[in-house]
Amino acid sequence: MNWISNYVRPKINSLFSRREVPENLWTKCPECGTMLFHRELSDNLNVCSNCNHHMQISPRDRFAALFDTGVFVEVPVPAPLVDPLQFRDQKKYPDRLRAAQKTTGEAEAMLVAEGEIGRTPVVVAAQDFSFMAGSMGMYVGNAIIAAAERAIQRKCPLILFSAAGGARMQEGILSLLQMPRTTVAVEMLREAGLPYIVVLTHPTTGGVTASYAMLGDVHIAEPNALICFAGPRVIEQTIREKLPEGFQRAEYLLDHGMLDRVIARGDMRDELITITRMLMGLSPVVAGKLPPPGDTAHTKDSPAELAEKILDAADEKP
Known about the structure:
Number of strands: 9
Oligomer: single chain
Order of helices and strands: HEEHHEHEEHEHHEHEHHEHH
Radius of gyration: 23 Å
Number of helices: 12
Shape: globular
Number of domains: 2
Helix content: 25-40%
CATH architecture of the largest domain: Alpha-Beta Complex
Strand content: 5-15%
CATH superfamily of the largest domain: 2-enoyl-CoA Hydratase, Chain A, domain 1
Structural class: alpha/beta
C-alpha cells in the first residue's frame, strides 16, 4: 500500500479542490441590483424584497400560489398546425418551438387551468413570457377559446394573466386572426353572464393589448407593468417628443382611467377572491378565512355592471 498516493494525495486534493456551487442560488434584481437568495425570492413570488420589483413568474408557480392549497387541473387545449407558413429566419420555426419547450418545460406560451380560489370555482389562463416572449399565436387563441368554453360549461369566472410581446411573427396573418377569435370568446362569456377578469403583467404589448387583454369586466395590473400597443421608444421616435415619466406604466394608466386596480403580486389572490365572489353574488370572505361553498346563482346585474358598482363603492370609502 502506497501511503502517500492512497491517503495523503487525496486528502490534499480534497482540501484544495474547488467546490462546485450551483449557479442559480442567487438572482440579481434587474431594478436595484440586490442579490437575492433563490429560496427567499421564490417564497416572495419573484418579487424583490428590497425595491418591490415584480420579476417574471411562470404560470405554474403563479397557479400554485393562486389556487386553494395550490391544487389545479390543466384544461386541454387543441394543438394547431405546426409551422403552417414554413417560416424560417435564422432558425426554422419548429426549431425555435423546440428550444422554447426545452427551456420552459411547457408546450406553448399559455397554460389554462381550473380549480378554486377562496372556494370559488374559476378557470384561469396565464401567458408565459419566457416562451418566445409570450407571443400570441394560434395555440394562444385556441387556449383562450378553450378557457372560455370551460368557464361557460362550469358557469364560473374566467381570469386571464397577460404577458406578451405581441403577435407571433412566425405565424404571420394567422397570429393576427387570433385577435377577433379571442374577442368572440370574450363575447361568449358576456352572453353567458359570466365575469371576465384580466390581470395585466409586465409586459403586455402589441396585438394582445389590442384584443383580449383590454376587454375584461375588471382590469388589474401588477406594479410598474408596461402596458401598451406600441412601445414608448417607438412613440418617441415617431412624434419626436419626450414622453412623460412613467408613461404606459400601470400607475400612469390607473391615473388616466384605463385600469381599475394596481395590486402587488402578494395581495393578488385575496383581491381576486373578493372580486370573483362579489361578481358571482356569493358571501364575502371574513377575516381571511375560506367561506363554505355557496350557491353560485348570478345576480340580476351583468358582470360589467356589477363590477362598476363594486369599484365605485370601493372608491367612495374614506
